[in-house]
Sequence to fold (70 residues):
Amino acid sequence: SDWSSDVCSSDLSYQWITSDSGVLKVSDDGTVSALTEGSAVVTVTCGEESVACAITVQKKADTTTNTPDN
Fold:
């Protein structure tokens, strides 16, 4: 079974937080969005239980290939 059904009963709600809101945005449903490069920890809490996940956001690699014009 997953963590959510074991920990969070129907009368409790999840609380999602980020350690750095400049790096990551976390919505009320737990959707994480990267805002800029950096690292942050996302923590979800329900009742007295919590789980944390460290996330590092890196700049996307440039995948363009330069070829000479002929």
Observations:
- Residues 3-7 form the longest helix (5 residues).
